[in-house]
Amino acid sequence: MFSCVDSSNQMLLHDQVAAQIRRSIAEGDAGPGDRLPPAKDLATVMGVNTNTVLRALHALRDEGLLEFRRGMGVRVSGTPQRSTVVSRARDLVRFARQQGYPPEELISIIQGLR
Q: I need a surface site. Which of 40, 67, 95, 113 has the fewest CB within 10 A?
Protein backbone atom coordinates (compact mmCIF):
# COMPACT_ATOMS: atom_id res chain seq x y z
CA MET A 1 0.00 0.00 0.00
CA PHE A 2 2.63 2.53 1.06
CA SER A 3 6.38 2.59 0.51
CA CYS A 4 9.33 4.71 1.56
CA VAL A 5 9.52 8.16 0.08
CA ASP A 6 12.38 9.08 -2.22
CA SER A 7 14.61 11.67 -0.54
CA SER A 8 16.42 12.27 -3.85
CA ASN A 9 13.12 13.33 -5.46
CA GLN A 10 12.74 17.11 -5.71
CA MET A 11 9.11 16.84 -4.65
CA LEU A 12 8.61 17.85 -1.00
CA LEU A 13 8.37 14.90 1.38
CA HIS A 14 4.86 15.72 2.59
CA ASP A 15 3.73 16.02 -1.04
CA GLN A 16 5.18 12.55 -1.74
CA VAL A 17 3.33 11.14 1.27
CA ALA A 18 0.08 12.81 0.17
CA ALA A 19 0.57 11.47 -3.36
CA GLN A 20 1.00 7.90 -2.07
CA ILE A 21 -2.16 8.14 0.03
CA ARG A 22 -4.08 9.79 -2.84
CA ARG A 23 -2.97 7.00 -5.18
CA SER A 24 -3.95 4.33 -2.68
CA ILE A 25 -7.44 5.83 -2.54
CA ALA A 26 -7.63 6.13 -6.33
CA GLU A 27 -6.61 2.49 -6.79
CA GLY A 28 -9.22 1.30 -4.30
CA ASP A 29 -6.83 0.18 -1.57
CA ALA A 30 -8.70 2.52 0.78
CA GLY A 31 -12.25 3.60 0.12
CA PRO A 32 -14.79 5.94 1.71
CA GLY A 33 -15.26 5.05 5.35
CA ASP A 34 -11.96 3.16 5.66
CA ARG A 35 -9.70 4.14 8.51
CA LEU A 36 -6.06 4.96 7.79
CA PRO A 37 -3.29 3.69 10.04
CA PRO A 38 -2.09 6.15 12.70
CA ALA A 39 0.30 8.87 11.46
CA LYS A 40 3.11 7.39 13.57
CA ASP A 41 2.75 4.01 11.85
CA LEU A 42 2.59 5.59 8.38
CA ALA A 43 5.71 7.61 9.19
CA THR A 44 7.59 4.46 10.17
CA VAL A 45 6.57 2.59 7.00
CA MET A 46 7.38 5.56 4.75
CA GLY A 47 10.63 6.45 6.49
CA VAL A 48 9.67 10.02 7.37
CA ASN A 49 8.93 12.09 10.45
CA THR A 50 5.42 11.90 11.94
CA ASN A 51 5.00 15.65 11.36
CA THR A 52 5.58 15.10 7.64
CA VAL A 53 2.74 12.58 7.56
CA LEU A 54 0.49 14.89 9.59
CA ARG A 55 1.13 17.72 7.13
CA ALA A 56 0.17 15.42 4.23
CA LEU A 57 -2.97 14.25 6.05
CA HIS A 58 -4.06 17.83 6.69
CA ALA A 59 -3.57 18.68 3.01
CA LEU A 60 -5.69 15.68 2.01
CA ARG A 61 -8.34 16.72 4.52
CA ASP A 62 -8.40 20.18 2.94
CA GLU A 63 -8.86 18.51 -0.46
CA GLY A 64 -11.88 16.64 0.84
CA LEU A 65 -10.32 13.18 0.71
CA LEU A 66 -9.98 12.60 4.45
CA GLU A 67 -11.85 13.50 7.59
CA PHE A 68 -10.53 13.65 11.12
CA ARG A 69 -12.79 12.54 13.94
CA ARG A 70 -11.80 12.60 17.58
CA GLY A 71 -11.60 9.07 18.89
CA MET A 72 -12.19 7.57 15.43
CA GLY A 73 -8.93 8.46 13.73
CA VAL A 74 -8.48 9.53 10.12
CA ARG A 75 -10.97 8.11 7.64
CA VAL A 76 -11.30 8.29 3.89
CA SER A 77 -14.24 10.57 3.14
CA GLY A 78 -14.07 10.99 -0.59
CA THR A 79 -12.65 9.98 -3.92
CA PRO A 80 -10.03 11.72 -6.05
CA GLN A 81 -12.86 13.01 -8.24
CA ARG A 82 -14.56 14.58 -5.21
CA SER A 83 -11.21 16.04 -4.21
CA THR A 84 -10.95 17.80 -7.56
CA VAL A 85 -14.45 19.23 -7.22
CA VAL A 86 -13.68 20.51 -3.71
CA SER A 87 -10.43 22.07 -4.93
CA ARG A 88 -12.15 23.83 -7.82
CA ALA A 89 -14.98 24.98 -5.58
CA ARG A 90 -12.41 26.56 -3.24
CA ASP A 91 -10.85 28.32 -6.23
CA LEU A 92 -14.28 29.60 -7.27
CA VAL A 93 -15.07 30.88 -3.77
CA ARG A 94 -11.68 32.61 -3.63
CA PHE A 95 -12.23 34.18 -7.08
CA ALA A 96 -15.76 35.32 -6.15
CA ARG A 97 -14.46 36.98 -2.97
CA GLN A 98 -11.81 38.81 -4.98
CA GLN A 99 -14.59 40.08 -7.26
CA GLY A 100 -16.64 41.26 -4.28
CA TYR A 101 -19.23 38.47 -4.17
CA PRO A 102 -20.01 37.08 -0.70
CA PRO A 103 -20.51 33.29 -0.38
CA GLU A 104 -24.30 33.64 -0.03
CA GLU A 105 -24.52 35.45 -3.36
CA LEU A 106 -22.25 32.89 -5.02
CA ILE A 107 -24.55 30.11 -3.77
CA SER A 108 -27.50 31.95 -5.27
CA ILE A 109 -25.68 32.26 -8.60
CA ILE A 110 -24.87 28.54 -8.62
CA GLN A 111 -28.43 27.57 -7.74
CA GLY A 112 -29.64 29.72 -10.63
CA LEU A 113 -27.56 27.62 -13.06
CA ARG A 114 -29.75 24.54 -12.73
A: 113
